[in-house]
């Protein structure tokens, strides 16, 4: 049980860790700063920032999932007794 939980934690860290790091440090603050400046309206800028940062997060998450699929935990097929 402990090993399964640690494998699941590793899978989550591998799949979402880089995306969260890039999103939290670079993309989201920049998008929330540029959005209101670009639109001249805080609410429209925040909506723009939210959409841009969500797209960037999921694009990074998809990339890391495809790139590091071998490191993710997956269910082993049940072997029937012969």
- Report on the biggest sheet: none
Class of secondary structure makeup: mainly alpha
Taking Cα atoms only, what radius of gyration do you get, to the nearest Å? Answer: 19 Å
Strand content: under 5%
- Distance between the first and last residues' Cα: 27 Å
**Count the strands?**
0
Work out the helix count. 2
Helical content (DSSP H or I, runs of 4+): over 70%
Ranges where pLDDT stays below 50 over 5 or more residues in a row are none
What is the residue-mean pLDDT, rounded to a whole number? 85
N-to-C order of helices and strands: HH
The shape, in one word, is: elongated
Describe the structure.
The chain has 82 residues and is mainly α. The protein has a domain at 18-71. Helix content is 78%, strand content 0%. It is elongated.
Helix and strand arrangement:
Layout: H1 2-39, H2 42-67
Helix pairs in contact: 1-2
What are the salient characteristics of this protein?
single chain, 82 residues, mainly alpha, 0% strand, elongated
Task: Describe this structure in a few short sentences.
With 82 residues, this protein is mostly helical. It has helices at 2-39, 42-67.
């Amino acid at each position: 049980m402990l090993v399964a939980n640690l494998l699941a934690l590793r899978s989550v860290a591998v799949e979402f860790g880089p995306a969260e790091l890039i999103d939290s440090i670079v993309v989201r603050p920049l998008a929330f700063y540029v959005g209101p400046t670009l639109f001249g309206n805080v609410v429209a800028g925040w909506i723009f920032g939210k959409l841009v940062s969500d797209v960037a997060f999921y694009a990074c998450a998809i990339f890391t999932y495809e790139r590091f699929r071998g490191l993710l935990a997956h269910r082993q097929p049940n072997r029937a007794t012969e």
